[in-house]
Every structure is written in structure tokens, then in C-alpha cells.
Amino acid sequence: MMAQRAFLENIRVSSSRIPTSGEDMADSFSQTDAPVDLLIIGTGMAGIGLARELRRLGDTRSITLVSGDSADEYSKPLLSTGFGKRLTPEKLAKKSAASVADELDATLLSNTHVVAIDSDRRRATLEDGEHVGFEALVLATGAGPRNAFDIPAGLAERFFSVNDLDDYRRFHAALAPGPARIAVVGAGLVGCEFANDLLAGGHQVTLIAPEATPLPRLLPVPLGQALGRAFEAGGIELALGRTVSRAAAAAAEHDDIALTLDSGDTHHVDAVLMATGLAPRSALAREAGLDVSESGIHVDRTLATSHAGIYALGDVACIDGVNAMYVQPLQASVKALAATLTGQPTRVRLGAWPVVVKTPLLPVVAYPPVGAGAQWRIEGEGDTLTALADDKDGQLVGFALTGGAVKRKVELSRAVPALLG
């Protein structure tokens, strides 16, 4: 116990000093493998939320959090509304990493990457070769962007994905003072929300995607068409049913990017936001021998992985075959895992929580049916549409709403089955 206390004192973060990688990290670590009680990899809503919930429950164990970014606390949903609200990165951040560490009475290592996990020896290896031993481990590594095409090396600084506060800082700086011409590649949830937000922020936006309508995974075609009409009426240029075949620097006298589509059309833009989907960051778990698939790290209803004492939480976790990358499932998972870790094994329950899409040009709410085979019934007219999804037995298993129909959200949420009851 004394060795562990000495180890913790050596790496404790205070408001005046946050260890980072390199020489600073070397100064912050002792050379012992004395374990911490709980190691959390990831400081997004999942990682910080779990530590905060444990402290709320009165848990006094030693906690170390490791973050690949600055580890400042922020609300991730605000990333896709920040430009419209004229939020600087400083306004988006709720607390500095140092303040978070002090609040949680925890060790927080920012800008530090874990490169390996030894599940047998129960330790994590950092990029500088140092080790952090643990009694219990929570993987809250989230999900990262997928790229739909190769980005030319010489243009890499003009292509962005925004998945955390550091990404937002870089994108915000690149667009200043604005306005800018921006191509958003991808018409899923992230792409549509950012397209609407960037337009509200005064930028010129082109939305490019291979699908024929926006939000194809959430909305049946008629409702997707309604959202597309609203986007065009608001001033977003649509290039749907198209892929980018080539990206290149434009002529020397024009400081822009030329995106050539498979149709042969070329769009000249100042920056490109890649929003072509997210993939769970599960490489560490896979290399450690945990049960992993494309859907994430496989966990049971208590969020336990295939290895005792190791858990997964948030966007990286596939719970009983379900990976729901939304705020409400994450919050429910945080509460369940905190209870489990404090001695009250608790199964995660995910209710019928629809996705509220942040597209003010046309409000959208959707609770897509799980699996294939559901049949859609469309009601309404104009942009106020209700889509009801029935299974083969005629039971309501999903819905989608646009415009004025979003007021039916509560009513229909009570009629569909829970995601994980």
C-alpha cells in the first residue's frame, strides 16, 4: 500500500501541472508497476462521466485517466452546434483538464497514448515505454472517423474531421475569420448536423454523399427527401448520389481545393469536413486479446469484456450486440457500470430513446428499427411527415418524424420496444 501511495503521489495531477508525453511524462512517473485501483482510458463523456459518478456514489478508490487529447471537459453534442452559436473553443470547454483532475481527486494524463494493454500482467504501456498497473480497467476510447477516400498529403491540413474539442479547435482556427466555402462529405448524422450548423455560422456549404437522400440510416426516402428540400431552401448545395473521385490543389492563383466528383463536376472549396462515419476505437482491445468485432468491444449487460476486471464503455462498447453511439445510452451505461464497480452488479437497460437530430432547417426525430425487414408506413404531407416501421407481425418497431410531426416523439417512444430492456 505504501508503494502504491508513493506511486500515486508521483503522478498526481494538480491544477498547476498536467503531465504530457516526453520528458514531462518521465518526470511524472515512478519506475514501479504498483497498480492504481482503476485505470480509465479515454476522457470523453464516458470516461469523465464514470469517474464523476463513482465519486458521487462516495467511491474513494484511486483513479487514473489517460487521454490522447488535451482532456479538457466539454459537451460533445455542442461540437455540431458551435459554429451557429458562434462558440469559440474556449467557450465550448466547460473545465480544464487540471480542474477536472482536482474535482475528481484523480490523476489525469493528457496528450498521452496507451500503446498496449497486458491483460494478464494487468498493466498498460504508454508511448514512452512507461507502464501503469491497474486493478480494474475501463476502455472508454470512443469512436474515430472513417475516411471514404485517400487525402493527398499536400492537402491534409485542409481536410478535417471533428470528433473532439481539439479537432474543433483546429477547424475553428482554419475557418477564421470566415466566411469560408466548405464541402461536407457524408450525409449521415454528423454530416447533416454540421452542414446545418456551418450554414448558420455564415459559411457556404456543399453537402456531398453517395446516398440519394440525407440521413439514410435514420429516415425512409420520403422523409430524407423532405430534409434535402429544407437544406436546399436554406442555402446548402446538395451533391447527393455522388462520390469524390479526386481531390487536388486548384490553380496557383486560387488558394482552394478542387474536388472532382464521379459525375465530372468540380467544386472549389476552402476546406473539407469529412463526415463519412465513425468506427469504434477497439484496436487496443483486439491486440490485448479481448473479444472484438467491427461493432466494437463485446461486453455483457454489466459492460464486462471477455477478460475479468476489464470493462468497455461508450461508443467503443457493443452491449449484447448493440452499439448505440448516442448520449442517453452512454449515460445509462455510466450509471450501470459505476454501480457495478461499487459492488452492486447492474445490468444496462436502454430504453426507447429516439435520436433528436440537430437540423433546425427541418427538425428530425428518429428511432430506427433494429435489423432488416421492417416495412414503413408514411403519413402526412409537405415537410410534416410521420414514418412508422412495422415488423412482419405488424408490431410497431420504429419511427421517424420531420417538421411539425416531431411533437409525436413522446407518444411513439412509449409504443415501440426498448433498445435493450
What does this entry look like structurally?
With 421 residues, this protein is α/β, with parallel strands linked by helices. Helices cover 24% and strands 28% of the residues. Strands 1, 2, 5, 6, 7, 8 and 21 form a 7-stranded mixed β-sheet that branches. α3 (45-56) links the parallel β1 and β2 (63-66). α3 packs across α10. It is globular. The two termini are 41 Å apart. The relative contact order is 0.12.
Keywords:
421 residues, alpha/beta, seven-stranded mixed β-sheet, 11 helices, disordered N terminus
* Anisotropy-based shape: globular
> Structural class from helices and strands?
alpha/beta
Q: Percent range for helical residues?
A: 10-25%
| Main sheet attributes: strand count, strand direction, barrel closure | 7 strands, mixed
Beta content:
25-35%
Can you tell me the residue ranges where pLDDT is under 50 for at least 5 consecutive residues? 1-32
Mean pLDDT: 90
Strand tally is 27
| Count, helices | 11
Q: Calculate the terminal CA-CA distance, rounded to whole Å.
A: 41 Å
Radius of gyration: 23 Å
